TrEMBL record:
SUPFAM superfamilies: EAL domain-like (SSF141868)
Primary location recorded for the protein, binned into one broad class: membrane
EAL domain ranges (all copies): 275-525
Spans through the membrane: 20-37
Cytoplasm among keywords: no
Protein name: cyclic-guanylate-specific phosphodiesterase
Compartments it resides in: Cell membrane
Species of the source: Hyphomicrobium album
Annotated catalysed reactions: 3',3'-c-di-GMP + H2O = 5'-phosphoguanylyl(3'->5')guanosine + H(+)
Bilayer topology annotation: Multi-pass membrane protein
CDD domains recorded: EAL
InterPro entries per the UniProt record, alphabetical: CSS-motif_dom, Cyclic-di-GMP_PDE-like, EAL_dom, EAL_sf
Gene Ontology MF: a single term: cyclic-guanylate-specific phosphodiesterase activity
Alphabetized UniProt keyword annotations: c-di-GMP, Cell membrane, Hydrolase, Membrane, Transmembrane, Transmembrane helix
Length: 535
């Protein structure tokens, strides 16, 4: 599962994803189509078998009715002229039966086509003997030459003294060539006689109790028997043979299915791209469990002690990777969840710091806040946990002026925060909207110089302006924090001015997790306290 999520997040192999989706959808459609065809063919087979049984039973019923009619109507002297006329009246009925026999005791004495047999023709024992006086006995697949029908094979049914020669059973002319079937008659002893169709199919299917998987997928078989009669029908259909009859329609259907699958695959791929886009993942996954915080130490240049930390937010993606704020800050702002986001960061920082940092280590904990959220009422609610422990923590806010602000409203907020013990700093001074005017007009506690000043080459314009900017800010009486300090040489330059109050940057430490911060505080000041040797 994680591998699939990673692939979706990475956004690579989009073409492969579309291909896989297309193949999966097409396979599903073909599977549904196969299931429909399977059901249709099986339904056709069942219907055909019932029709076949109905047809043969209709013939059987006609035979029984004709023999009973003879028993009722042929009352003249056997084999007399009147008797033969009575038999011929029954033979004239439109049921296809016209060769009736008078055969008392199984001895044929006369028939509708022959006035007498001298000597009488002896019939062999029946293949299917009668079980009641109302049912005929059957002699199956007999040579009818002895009754004057040379070269004809038929079935003789006998009821009482009368019998009838039944023509061979013929299949329908318009039967499907892909459907193989056999109609059989079964005796009471289980013996089977093939009536019509593919001889041996019934017994073959009876022997195939467990067809192979391949055969089961491509070949349909079925056997049904008439519960009220001796007849059974066995059928076998090969789906490949069936498909040949429907090849043009099947080809068009598969082509349409492929096009439909491609449209669906593209729509699903586009939806997945949106659903698994970074912005969508972040919006869904922004919660207390996904917020991770890091702490960058703030060092007092006068004492070289760590006196505070800036809390930096990270977000844990669904694949476990940590995402830097430059990727999601704009999303937070666009989504209108800035207050919620700040609350999550503050709560996580308080939970970690209160658990791991000793009560004898007071820290100023600084948070970046969004300018639209710069309201004392909301911020004091957000920082309520830190404000409850003034001996351990002092909260501070860093305001990034990325758009214009109302000075009067901002001043009221700064004063209200200060009254509650929260200090305010202007962050990233030297970029965006920040200016000396704002520093002078707002009663902020300090200014953080952007790293574009801190690490500019000494001979660059920004490098030459560094000391002058520090001096100008100092004239306003504000504290000065320089962030982004990465080398000990630049740290000593800032220290030499005597005007910089605090520094932070990689020369002190990279952003740390809570365990690393605890270990750093336990070690005390280190390399950053080294001063250049006196000349």
């Amino acid at each position: 599962m994680s591998a699939i999520v990673n692939a979706l997040i990475a956004g690579r192999h989009r073409r492969l994803l579309r291909g896989v989706l297309w193949g999966a959808i097409l396979a599903a459609l073909l599977g549904l189509g196969y299931g429909f065809v399977h059901w249709q063919v099986r339904s056709f087979i069942r219907h055909d078998q019932r029709a076949e049984l109905a047809r043969i039973n209709s013939i059987r019923t006609g035979v029984v009715d004709a023999l009973r009619m003879l028993q009722r109507d042929a009352t003249a002297v056997p084999c007399s002229r009147d008797f033969l006329a009575q038999m011929r009246r029954v033979a004239f009925l439109p049921d296809g039966l016209n060769e009736f026999l008078y055969a008392p005791g199984g001895r044929i004495e006369c028939s509708t086509s022959q006035p007498s047999f001298e000597p009488p023709v002896l019939l062999a024992a029946p293949d299917i003997a009668t079980t009641t006086s109302n049912d005929p006995s059957w002699r199956v697949d007999r040579d009818l030459a002895s009754i004057g029908l040379a070269g004809v094979i038929g079935t003789i049914a006998q009821l009482g003294n009368f019998a009838v020669a039944i023509p061979p059973y013929t299949r329908y002319e318009n039967e499907s060539p892909w459907l193989h079937k056999e109609l059989v008659s079964r005796g009471a002893d289980g013996k089977v006689w093939s009536v019509a169709g593919d001889r041996g199919l019934f017994e073959s299917l009876e022997a195939e109790k467990h067809p192979s998987l391949g055969a089961g997928l491509t070949t349909l078989t079925s056997s049904i028997c008439d519960p009220a009669g001796p007849y059974c029908v066995a059928s076998r259909a090969n789906l490949f043979d069936w498909a040949k009859d429907w090849l043009p329609i099947l080809s068009s259907t598969i082509l349409l299915a492929a096009l439909f699958a491609w449209v669906c695959a593209n729509n699903i791929a586009d939806w997945l791209a949106r659903y698994w886009s970074f912005e969508a993942r972040f919006t869904r996954g922004l919660n207390a469990q996904s917020i991770v915080v890091a702490y960058q130490p703030l060092v007092d240049l006068k004492t070289d002690d760590i006196v505070g930390v800036e809390v930096l937010a990270r977000w844990r993606d669904v694949d476990g990777t940590l995402v830097a704020p430059n990727r999601f800050i704009d999303i937070v702002a666009r989504s209108g969840r800035t207050g919620e986001f700040t609350q999550l960061v503050v709560d996580r920082a308080y939970a970690e710091l209160s658990e791991h940092i000793g009560r004898d280590t007071p820290l100023e904990v600084s948070f970046n806040v969004f300018a639209p959220d710069f309201d004392s009422t909301d911020l004091l609610k957000i920082f309520v946990k830190f404000l409850g422990e003034p001996q351990r923590f002092r909260a501070a806010v860093e305001l990034v002026e990325n758009h214009d602000i109302d000075f009067e409203s901002a001043q009221c907020t700064i004063e209200a925060l200060a009254a509650a013990g929260v200090r305010t700093f202007i962050d990233d001074f030297g970029t965006g909207y920040s200016s000396i005017e704002r520093v002078a007009r707002l009663a902020v506690h300090g200014v953080k110089l952007d790293r574009s000043f801190a690490m500019s080459p000494p001979d660059s314009v920004m490098g030459r302006m560094l000391v002058q900017v520090i001096e100008i800010i100092k004239t306003t009486g504000r504290l000065i924090i320089v962030e982004g300090v990465e080398t000990l040489a630049r740290l000593n330059v800032l220290r030499a001015t005597g005007l910089v109050d605090y520094v932070q940057g990689y020369v002190i430490s990279r952003p740390l997790d809570i365990n690393e911060l605890t270990a750093l505080l336990a070690r005390g000041n280190a390399a950053w306290s080294i001063r250049p040797a006196a000349a």
